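Protein: Glycosyl transferase family 2
Species: Neotamlana nanhaiensis
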Amino acid sequence: MDQAALKESPLVSVVIPCYNHAQYLPKAINSVLNQSYSEHEIIVIDDGSSDNTKDVCLKFPEVIYIHQKNAGLSAARNTGIKHAKGEYLVFLDADDWLVPDGIKLNLSFIVKNSKIAFVSGGHKIYYEPDDKSWLIQKKPNNNTYLELLKGNFIGMHATVMYSQWVFKKLKFDTTIKYCEDYDLYLKIAKSFPVLHHTNIIAVYRIHDNNMSSNYHKMLRYALLILSKQKKLKLSENEKSALKYGQDFWKSYYSKKTYNHLIHQLYETNNTLNIQEIKSLKRHNSKLYKAFKLEKKEYQKTLKNNYRTKKIKAPTFMQLLRTIKNKLKYKKSNSIKVNLGDFNRTTPFSTQFGYDRGGPIDRYYIESFLSENANKIKNNVLEIGDNTYSLRFGGSNIKKSDILHIDDKNEKATYIGDLSDAPHVPSNNFDCVILTQTLHLIYNYKAAIETCYRILKPGGALLLTVPGISHIAQDQWGEYWLWSFTKASITKILQEYFPEKNITTNTYGNVLVSSAFLYGLGLPELNQEQLDYNDPHFQLIISASAIK
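Structure follows.
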């Protein structure tokens, strides 16, 4: 945030609606009290709770406590808007929390332009039962409304900071019981400028009380919300995006409904939600047929084994997997593989998972950079943009430069091809960050030679390259020239850097690589699956090389 904005210190109102979530509320409140930005107020809207929500709030003198009869989440948020005094508003659910710099980060973006209606950022998902977490950092294109028509890439409401003036024009629709935040995003983005970044703002907690959601109802409301947009005057691109969004929500929630039904089948001995079955039949006939077969197999197993006890249900994380790769054994000892959702010749997505919660490969790239953040310091050059430099180098960076091949890029400090860049000064940088670019450069050896030349003695090249990947289907596809392995990257680097100064690693396994090729997103895999490393399946190769 610039100094002028810091001096103004605008008040930020954090509204926390709460309905019987008293047990989680202290962490949410403390996450606001512990913010690095201190000019805020906390308003808890007790939406008719029957637990000790009030008692919890009274322990915090900083909290403005407001009780109302139970009216639903949208009504509670509107009540918060009514009582908020801040120039900017944040809505934090009682079972989630903000990261320490969450308010400051969002504020640094929104204060730059008074016309921005809201700014949103990335978030972390915390899966409480297994104590696991993963990052969601979707990076949309510049047309936010178009991207929102395709799906709710924001994902978590607490990552959004609103300008107070927008609520003089719009409120949360109290007739919408699910996806009400998505409805508001679309209304705002259609009429006003909004902004999104990938910095982590908040943590979304998945726990026993919220994991069994009403997916069929959420699907119904998501489609209803898009149907309202359909009535507006839309461009051809917007109409196409809306159609894409309708298909996306049907696929997304049908998978969750299917998994929930399977969970019910095993957990409740065939006591099933009829509305969920009807929704699955209506919106995804393939999954409906798969469920019928699974149900038949379950009933057959019960009969053949004379079971009177429940069959042990799969864990919830297993049910979250969209890749169902169950092995069935025959008496002949041969193994028949049930391909499940993999039994198709086309991927689920061709956008590297950006439309399904974020790319899987970014998890490894960012883990590598995080582990080497101490090398990102002083004078840093990043190829393409400086997002990673600023994120992982932070205050350790004295000067951040960008090399870009397109002379129309106004942010670039150097224009040119990395393999032919004599104008970039030698022995100048303490760190060069080159992620997911080397495969696009025909003379990749010359590019590595340039990196070595422009680094100061003791400077670090931080490099990542794709190993296993499909070819991009956008403009980059025609420039996608190479695929690398750990062995090839090591050999290439050894031509310029001392062997003892080179550290290479691989990331991935057969499941993760298959999921990436099929276009699955990061949230569709759990931490254990992501962190298991099999060097025979090299999804990403990373290298740190010191001059």
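Remarks: The chain has three domains: 3-209, 236-320, 354-546.
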